[in-house]
Amino acid sequence: MSDRVVAIASDHAGYRLKQELAEELGKLGAQPLDLGTHDEESVDYPDFGRAIAEAIENGRAERGVLVCGTGIGISIAANRNPAVRAAPCHDATITRLARQHNDANVLALGARTIGAEVAKDCLRVFLETPFEGGRHERRVAKLGNGAART
């Protein structure tokens, strides 16, 4: 694993899992850029989806990891930015395919839908799996101005 910067953020529902994943990022050789939240007090997930999107767009991070209750709402928020291809994932296979076929640059996880070990597997696969390019390149390029760069 390279020494790349990976932004990480969550809402209150994902706070505990985010903390575990931030630690795991370090073990995997990445530098976590923690964009919040910093406790379990209720917050609005769109704010954290936007924070990750801005970090990706402006080059502060190569990739991002988002955690909310399901991974769905926070991924919708991040995907409003054309530089982001956030994929809500629930296992290593879906994560691998999101990287290989969709060049996902943000991994979205649901703290209420998967356990910490599955989330760590997803994180590892997300960081290790390259984009296949080829027949997928044309399709991914149609997704937005950040497509097929990672």
From TrEMBL:
Residue sites binding D-ribulose 5-phosphate per the record: D11, H12, G69, T70, G71, I72, G73, N102, R112, R135, R139
GO molecular function: intramolecular oxidoreductase activity, interconverting aldoses and ketoses
Keyword annotations: Isomerase
Top-level taxon of the source organism: Bacteria
Pfam families the UniProt entry points to: LacAB_rpiB
Catalytic-site annotation from UniProt: C68 (proton acceptor), H101 (proton donor)
InterPro entries named in the record: RpiB (IPR004785), RpiB_LacA_LacB (IPR003500), RpiB_LacA_LacB_sf (IPR036569)
Alphabetical list of SUPFAM superfamilies matching this protein: Ribose/Galactose isomerase RpiB/AlsB (SSF89623)
GO BP term, example: carbohydrate metabolic process
Family membership: Belongs to the LacAB/RpiB family.
Protein name: Ribose-5-phosphate isomerase
